[in-house]
Amino acid sequence: MLHNIDINKMNTLTEENSDAKQIIGQLLENHHRIVSTIAHEIRNPLTLVSSSLQVTELQHPEVKEFPHWKQTIEDVEFICQLLNELSAFNNGEVLNYSVFSIERLLKNIAVSFAISLDSEVSDIEFSSSIPSNLGDYTGDKVKLEQVFLNLLYNARESICGKGQIYFSASRSEDFLVIQCEDSGCGISDEVIDYIFEPFKTYKAGGTGLGLSLSKKIVESHGGSISVDSKVDQGSIFTIKLPI
Ligand SMILES: Nc1ncnc2c1ncn2[C@@H]1O[C@H](COP(=O)(O)OP(=O)(O)O)[C@@H](O)[C@H]1O
Ligand SMILES: [Mg+2]
């Protein structure tokens, strides 16, 4: 994977040299196509495996008692999730623009997240503050929704037992600011520099693609994502989107 320093070097090269720009463009396009093809080719047989497991379970419910059955189902689900996130990551920069009410989008996300917490009987208190002066925003609504949900899911996963999550938005002259604050486990100094890199995960069952995809999407909108965190006290993620 390319690090920021390499991406900066690559950007300088493409600005200075039109041949380099063309070759790097072709290489990137090729790389995207290969990742898409691999994800697609693995997903097809995997979907068949997943359907066969479901049919087997319906026809022979006793298999649920077999050793390793539950683990096998979970492993197949995990690979499906990984492939979906990999495809989303691969297409992170491709934006489908529309004009939409950011207030409505954020309120819908807050409501569905609150419902998902209620259905889990969790000890997490969730609150939000989405003012009505946010106005319209031009961007990729589906991808931005994915970003905000990623932050909320990470916040939920950071809390073990009781805790709070606060989701808020505000508008200044040039920016929309969206924040997700939690009272969870926090992030140590050793890992905080790596959490936005792809495949860096520090939790069981994580894919490590949520934040790297979110960063890609936010930066494709010309914005930024940052984090402030204290171990055992919690974290606050801030997204700034230019208007
Ligand atoms: N709100 C948070 N609180 C504590 N740690 C977090 C939070 N959000 C992200 N992280 C850390 O960043 C890592 C990368 O997050 P992410 O890219 O979403 O991947 P994943 O959730 O699959 O691990 C997580 O494994 C976790 O260690
Ligand atoms: Mg995540």
TrEMBL record:
Keywords (A to Z) from UniProt: ATP-binding, Kinase, Nucleotide-binding, Phosphoprotein, Transferase, Two-component regulatory system
Keyword Nucleotide-binding: yes
UniProt cross-references to Pfam families, sorted A to Z: HATPase_c (PF02518)
All residue ranges annotated as the Histidine kinase domain in the record: 37-243
Domain of life: Bacteria
GO molecular function: ATP binding; phosphorelay sensor kinase activity
Keyword Lipid biosynthesis: no
E.C. designation(s): 2.7.13.3
PROSITE patterns assigned: HIS_KIN
InterPro entries assigned to the protein according to its UniProt record, in alphabetical order: HATPase_C_sf (IPR036890), HATPase_dom (IPR003594), His_kinase_dom (IPR005467), HisK_dim/P_dom (IPR003661), HisK_dim/P_sf (IPR036097), Sig_transdc_His_kin-like_C (IPR004358)
Catalytic reaction annotation: ATP + protein L-histidine = ADP + protein N-phospho-L-histidine
The protein, known as: histidine kinase
